[in-house]
Amino acid sequence: MSGRCHDRSQHHHRHHGRSRSCSTVVVAVRVGLFSAATAAVLALYRQFRSIVHNFAPAYIRELDNGENSETNRAGRLAELRVAELFQGIPGVEVYQSLRIPDPGHRGRREVDIVLLTKRDLFVLEVKNWSGSIHLNGDGSWVQIRSDGSTVVHSNLMEDLKYRVDLLETYLERRGVALPHGFLQPKVFLLNRQCRPEQAIIMQREVISADQWEHFYNINLVQKDSGWLRNALSSEKVEETLSEQERKQLHYILSTAPTWDRLELEDGKIVVGEFQGFKGRSCDTRILSSVKRSAVSRMDMTHRQGWINQLFGTPKVQILVTLRDYRAVNFNFPNRKSLQDSCMQTTVRSETRLIFQVVGTSKPEFFSVSEVRSLSLSS
């Protein structure tokens, strides 16, 4: 009797043990499924948040900036087009968006484009204005747009000549004295819908859209620099710079302060002032430790693998190019310089770049996942 009870007791314990083991397995499976589901939900949330970061800011920027933003963007694109057209012409060096110190106003004045040839230094102001342009009695330029709205601008030629004087003073302080007439201001009115009055067109420093198209169609497409002086020069310069002086001038203009330049993944170019990164400290620590004065460029490489996008945190690899003061052209070092003076780091795609766009009052935030490269001025 006792043996039978003992067997029944052992059977009961074995059965209870199996039940407890099964319950443990079931719980473990449920926990595992719940964890997997949670991970999947989190991954989808990260993906959704990344999409919001990538697309919403651009949409919001369009709403916030409005017409002024469109005008500024059109003007910047016009400057880029003109600069690109002059690039590669033998004997012509092109410099963009120079920011020249203005001691009288304790700030800087921007020069759109500078062209250096053997006998001239052309300082270009590029405008993409549309509508009719008239001279006011006080010298201001009045723009009447197609919608009837009126914009009063300061005297464009006087402003440009003031910046030319600042540039000449800046070059003298850095050791280059230019011959009289070597620096020549030019205003390019590129928009075919721009109709300046005769009093403006008659100024020898003003290049209308019709004149510009003639220069481009007849001469510029041939990549011939011989026409440039005949087309633009309004001064007869007897003296020329020596080869050593010209190299020094090229070096000074190459290292003059400019705006920082942001190239986005969709091909847009944004200019302004880079102000830093915002994100998790583990992502920004390395980038924050690099001094701006030591960096010339950052290139972003985006990892596009869908598995990493879905089940991991999207990453962006940043290649930091350190500034090489031995080179004349800092923004485009040779391959050996890239190998010797680069560092890499990887950050989450939600990391944001703080950038003060020219013409705006507040800094904007760009996700690193929408940025292709960042070029920093010296």
From TrEMBL:
The keyword Membrane applies. Pfam families: NERD. The chain crosses the membrane at residues 21-45. Keywords: Membrane, Transmembrane, Transmembrane helix. Residues 74-190 form the NERD domain. This is NERD domain-containing protein. It comes from Physcomitrium patens (Spreading-leaved earth moss).
